[in-house]
Specification:
Pathway: Glycan biosynthesis; glycogen biosynthesis. Its EC number is 2.7.7.27. With about 425 residues, the protein is of the alpha/beta class. It is built from ten helices and 29 strands. The chain is globular, with a radius of gyration of 23 Å.
């Protein structure tokens, strides 16, 4: 008798990552790149978390749909995610909006991005399709969610966060019964429904969906013929399935990946300057909620070949040091005091400068005697000698972007305009 091959469901699945959004609330940080391509955590990009979750879950077929200012994202994927081998039945396809269906038509919505690439998904020969957003920070074993979907027989399984009811109004909220069947989908409701048996808590959609491919394929083709549809999962397809009684909720608490250092489920949308800054700075804490040092569930990315970071000068007021900070490779901290800050690859800081809660993206330069407090420096910014930012919000706002939470974003264009006006 021939033995059956026991395959993990992840090996029968593909991940379709939606990575075309700008993320306009990040302001000038997304002037040159889509939100999923924004840097995070010292050396990674935001999209690396969704892709790493898929890879670590055993999924070896992936597609990334891009649209808004995709060059930075595509270059990162080409440099950091080219280790898939077709001879092992592994694929990562980059799918820019390329008018494949109609020469006048880009991706009209999240569902349309999949519809326009049905032939490519067909070629993967998979049973399950996992739809992912490429712009959130979290660690999750997708195999657990796919397993629940297969066992429940649902038409769609929706990944859900457990959030306090008072905070749920900022999300799309799922009303569920005791079996976790979704009974209603409410977009940013004023009075979010509570979870059964968990008073004070609600279920918020993560924008993660699992479908059987044959079911989703038929659904997408029908949606494409509907002139009243906006061709979006969250606005059209999911509410329709909920109304027909075919949607189940999957709790992130059941599949989140934690380390021994911190067992609390972690998920963040770094969609504003304040959240981007605070989430990066939080990584410098003694025991951060997100453990990026956990090698059992690594965050894969493109790793440049860089020399070790160097700290130089040891004089009073001119000592290269970094306290409660993270400093990536290739940096030179020359006579600068760095505290509670995160410096990405290739940054340079010079004598007598002071950095406090600074998030410096790659190749930033901070010149002599500059004082920066609660600042985000865009890629390649050169901070002029003696610039003081973070002590006078009104003065800062004349030249730079100051957030509601008091974080100052500095880009090179802002510095150039300032220099022109000051002569």
């Amino acid at each position: 008798m021939k033995a059956k091959v026991n395959q993990r469901l992840a090996s029968k699945s593909m991940a379709f990552v939606l990575a075309g959004g700008r993320g306009s609330r990040l302001k000038e940080l997304t002037d040159r790149r889509a939100k999923p391509a924004v840097y995070f955590g010292g050396k990674t990009r935001i999209i690396d978390f969704a892709l790493s979750n898929a890879y670590n879950s055993g999924i070896r077929k992936m597609a990334v749909a891009t649209q808004y200012k995709a060059h930075s994202l595509i270059r990162h994927l080409q440099r950091g995610w080219t280790f898939f081998r077709a001879e092992r039945n592994e694929y990562l396809d980059i799918l820019p909006a390329s008018q494949r269906v109609d020469e006048h038509r880009w991706y009209l919505g999240t569902a349309d991005a999949v519809t326009q690439n049905i032939d490519i998904v067909d070629s993967y020969d998979v049973e399950y399709v996992l739809i992912l957003a490429g712009d959130h920070i979290y660690k999750m074993d997708y195999e657990v969610m796919i397993q629940q979907h297969a066992e429940s027989g649902a038409d769609v399984t929706v990944g859900c966060l457990t959030v306090p009811q008072k905070e749920a109004s900022a999300f799309g909220v799922m009303a569920v019964d005791e079996s976790r069947k979704i009974t209603d989908f409410l977009e940013k409701p004023a009075n979010p429904p509570e979870m059964p048996g968990n008073p004070g808590m609600s279920l918020a959609s993560m924008g993660i969906y699992v479908f059987r491919w044959d079911y989703l394929r038929a659904l997408l083709l029908a949606d494409a013929e509907n002139p009243k549809s906006s061709h979006d999962f969250g606005h059209d397809l999911i509410p329709d399935i909920v109304a027909r009684g075919g949607a189940m909720a999957h709790l992130f608490d059941d599949s989140c990946v934690t380390s021994g250092e911190n067992e609390k489920p972690y998920w963040r949308d770094v969609g504003t300057i304040d959240s981007f800054h605070s989430t990066n700075v939080a990584l410098t804490e003694f025991t951060p909620e997100l453990d990026i040092f956990d090698q059992s569930w690594p965050v894969w990315t493109y790793s440049e070949i860089t020399p070790p970071t160097k700290f130089i000068h040891d004089e009073e007021g001119r000592r290269g040091s970094a306290i409660s900070s993270m400093v990536a490779g290739g940096c030179i901290i020359s006579g600068t005091e760095v505290r509670e800050s995160l410096l990405f690859t290739g940054c340079r800081t010079h004598s007598y400068a002071e950095l406090f809660q600074v998030v410096a993206l790659p190749n930033s330069v901070v010149n002599r005697s500059a004082i920066l407090k609660r600042v985000v420096l865009d890629h390649g910014v050169v901070v002029p000698e003696g610039l003081v930012v973070g002590e006078d919000p009104e003065e800062d706002a004349k030249w730079f972007r100051v957030s509601e939470g008091g974080v100052t974003l500095i880009t090179q264009r802002m510095l150039d305009l300032r220099a022109d006006k000051l002569g």
